[in-house]
Amino acid sequence: MSDTTLDRATETQEQLRDFVALLKPRVMSLVVFSGLAGLLVAPGSLHPFLAAVAVLCIAVAAGGAGAINMWYDRDIDAVMSRTRARPIVQGRVAPEEALAFGVVLSLFSVMVMGLALNWVAAGLLALANLFYVFVYTVWLKRRTPQNIVIGGAAGAFPPMIGWAAVTGSVSIESLLLFALIFFWTPPHFWALALYRSGDYARAGVPMLPVVAGEGATKRQILLYSLVLLPLAPAPALLGTAGIVYGATALVLGLLFLAGALAVLRAPSGADTDRAAKRLFAFSILYLFLLFALLIVDRGEGLIGGLGLA
């Protein structure tokens, strides 16, 4: 193989990595998992191929929204330490290419979901993307410290979409799964914002620690953690999950609350940063474990939901 061919192959691989980075794969993984959980615990059955299509559509749509977000936020990404290495900022992907990539993925995923599954699921998928792009990214993110509270709804749609892919409807059970992510999102992101507040201040993003201060942010984190405490076990009361899930969710909620209290009590400075980093890391594990437990506790959902019963 010639050096020219090797160089072209290397360049292609690097371009592929850059376009994958536009999809925000770490964020996508949690979105996909919660969507899969909604699909598996929903009543009814779905052919394994159609289940895979539904999950793929959720993943592709999330990636498309992420690419559009990077296109729009490229100016503030350039001044934030955690985002300044993104492909658009570094000039490895042209802004118009990223925008076209995101729009095509978003439209494609919604159309496939509608044609292959049902238009209720497709409508929810479209709503989630539109909400993330226009309500959160364009409207709220740079204007209000409530950006995460309201905009977080976009990330709460996937379990509803998975549920609707199976049932063709929205129910109280799927709305509860939506609420779980909706109320988890503020303490999750505010923990990040506490130890990244300098980044947000430089970028002019009015995250709560920048606008209201550290103390107010800590109190809000505690408040939302208290809301999560009874909310997380609630699927067991509705029959979406059993006692194993309910008991474990309560324990996880108490651990989340303990982390929020540790943040509240931590002195300003390095101690607050350490407590916030621990809570941020645990919050990701917390949500992953809750949805994993939903799947495990509803073992029949894993079989029936894939049409294998």
UniProtKB/TrEMBL annotation:
RNA-binding as UniProt keyword: no
Q: How does it sit in the membrane?
A: Multi-pass membrane protein
Its chief place of residence is membrane
Bilayer-crossing residues are 27-43, 49-72, 93-113, 119-140, 147-166, 172-195, 221-238, 244-267, 279-296
Determine if Transmembrane helix is one of this entry's keywords: yes
Q: What is its EC number?
A: 2.5.1.141
Question: At the top level of its lineage, which domain of life is listed?
Answer: Bacteria
State the UniProt keywords alphabetically.
Cell membrane, Heme biosynthesis, Membrane, Transferase, Transmembrane, Transmembrane helix
Q: Which pathway is recorded for this entry?
A: Porphyrin-containing compound metabolism; heme O biosynthesis; heme O from protoheme: step 1/1
Pfam families linked to this entry = UbiA (PF01040)
What more is known? Carbon 2 of the heme B porphyrin ring is defined according to the Fischer nomenclature.
Q: What does this protein do?
A: Converts heme B (protoheme IX) to heme O by substitution of the vinyl group on carbon 2 of heme B porphyrin ring with a hydroxyethyl farnesyl side group.
Which PANTHER family does the entry link to?
Answer: 4-HYDROXYBENZOATE SOLANESYLTRANSFERASE (PTHR43448:SF7), PROTOHEME IX FARNESYLTRANSFERASE, MITOCHONDRIAL (PTHR43448)
Question: What is the name attached to this protein's record?
Answer: Protoheme IX farnesyltransferase
Q: Where does this protein come from, organism-wise?
A: Aquibaculum arenosum
Gene encoding this chain? ctaB
